[in-house]
Amino acid sequence: MSADVPASRELAGIAELAARTAGGPLRTAFRSRPEVDVKRDFHDPVTEHDRAAEETIRAVLAEHTPGSVVVGEEGGARGGADSHVRWYVDPIDGTANFAVGLPFFCVSIAAVADGELVAGVVYDPVRDDMFTASLDGATCNGEPIRSRGAASDATAVAASSYPSAADLRGGDRDETLARFGRMVDAFATLRRPGSAALTLAHVAAGWTDVAFDPSINAWDVAAALLLVRQAGGTYLPLGGRDGDPDWDAPGYLACVAGFDLAGSVMTEVAGLTAMGAGR
């Protein structure tokens, strides 16, 4: 499949269908306080609804793009190894929020065709907001969105999961907390929303000015990074190797168009030069 605009629109439409199909049951199950299992440790929860939503999404994608590869957070990579289309699926990005009834989580689905990221959706089932990106642009509920907002730290709302428990364990704890403190001091407001994909969708829409995460997975950000870029914002992959696709980088820094990133505290905190941003 060639990566042209009509093909990307078609893949975006399939992703929308899959996200809505999974989103309905998630909306019904929301605030039911489901039982929570853990994966790597107690900071990494999963519920039966994560697994059920991913299987629903896989079924829709298989029906409309037979033989395609689906890389899901819960079920790993499955499908035809030689397929031209590869999907990246996070059935619930923000499981910890979903599990306790905090209304900030989403379904994230991205399509890569012949190695190019060409379509993505981030669906907020609580608000029924469908963010869609294709090679034709970015929309929310069918209306074009532009990533515009604050110009500097002092007037910006920033969102980040940093520092995570892994960040605190894996480095100099005092320095890690000091970096976080510099972010708190610099920004007008700093939030920890709990869903990278939905946070980035809000950057694309201009509802959040800056987003940062040094530890992320492809299924969390593939759809959302296309949203940010197609809406005119900036998405910088952090820490990846030259030649790797941007969605495979282990971290990111994103901001709205017109934001003074060079003058931001994030240049220091994210270690842009040392971490190999903007490959």
From TrEMBL:
Keywords: Hydrolase, Magnesium, Metal-binding. It catalyses: a myo-inositol phosphate + H2O = myo-inositol + phosphate; L-histidinol phosphate + H2O = L-histidinol + phosphate. Pathway: Amino-acid biosynthesis; L-histidine biosynthesis; L-histidine from 5-phospho-alpha-D-ribose 1-diphosphate: step 8/9. Gene3D superfamilies: 3.40.190.80, Fructose-1,6-Bisphosphatase, subunit A, domain 1. Mg(2+) 2 binds at residues 90, 93, 220. It holds the Pfam family Inositol_P. Its cofactor is Mg(2+). One of its GO terms (molecular function) is metal ion binding. SUPFAM superfamilies: Carbohydrate phosphatase. Its EC number is 3.1.3.15, 3.1.3.25. It is an enzyme of class 3 (hydrolase). InterPro entries: Inositol_monophosphatase-like, Inositol_monophosphatase_CS. Mg(2+) 1 binds at residues 73, 92. GO terms for biological process: inositol metabolic process; phosphatidylinositol phosphate biosynthetic process; signal transduction. Catalyzes the dephosphorylation of histidinol-phosphate to histidinol, the direct precursor of histidine. This is Histidinol-phosphatase. It comes from Actinomadura decatromicini.
